[in-house]
């Protein structure tokens, strides 16, 4: 494996900051993520062992992208995410770099995709606080609609963070593709907000013949009321 060290501090506008550190030696590699405490939320730390393929892929991405580093990457806007980092290797090093809310066609986005991709979201426990944080951080980047299907019995439709009105077509397709007769949990425990124009898109979930249970955050309740979801099938989580 290539030997290198990568560290990136993420500072989202509306969620907790975190430090992502990749340490790669010839014999082993690991990723350590430290989520900083804030208000009543305690800090979190997770360490992930990395296989050589993933570690080497991240090195290649860093080497290719950071050689093109420009101060223009760090121009700050509003309601996004800033990142500060460093990269050290025998082939190339950059003591300090920063960027702000990269879009998919911009250099830093590929770096973020490679780094966050070291964590297999589907392998994380659904009720783990780190899972919720990972989803929150993930939503700041241009990775698509914050909705995923978790296979199981029952199937789980997990909707997290925020939905905007331009996601209507994709959201509608995801909902339509769920078999109406199968048991389903609509999981909105990590939900924050959505455009109210999306409420009618949820109608098939209310009218479906299969057993449907809603597990939601307090932030989701007003939207469920607008959708006229029967409250007897809704469970609100604490916190």
Sum up the overall morphology in one term. Answer: elongated
How big a fraction of the residues is strand? 25-35%
Count of the separate structural domains:
2
Spans of at least 5 consecutive residues whose pLDDT stays below 50 are none
End-to-end distance, in Å? Answer: 43 Å
The gyration radius over C-alpha positions equals: 20 Å
- Number of helical segments with 4 or more residues: 6
Task: Give a brief outline of the structure.
By secondary structure, the chain is an alpha/beta fold. It is built from six helices and 13 strands. It has helices at 52-66, 107-116, 129-138, 168-176, 203-207, 221-227, and strands at 4-12, 18-24, 29-35, 44-50, 81-89, 94-100, 147-150, 155-159, 161-163, 184-188, 191-194, 212-216, 234-236.
General description of the model:
The chain is of the alpha/beta class. The protein folds into two domains: 4-122, Mago nashi protein, CATH 3.30.1560; 144-236, 2-Layer Sandwich (Transcription Regulator spoIIAA). 23% of the residues lie in helices and 31% in strands. It has helices at residues 52-66, 107-116, 129-138, 168-176, 203-207, 221-227, and strands at 4-12, 18-24, 29-35, 44-50, 81-89, 94-100, 147-150, 155-159, 161-163, 184-188, 191-194, 212-216, 234-236. The strands form three sheets. Strands 4-3-2-1-5-6 form a six-stranded antiparallel β-sheet, with helices on one face. A five-stranded mixed β-sheet has the order 7-8-10-12-13, with no helix packed on it. A hairpin with a 4-residue loop joins strand 7 and strand 8. It is elongated and about 60 Å long. The mean pLDDT is 95.
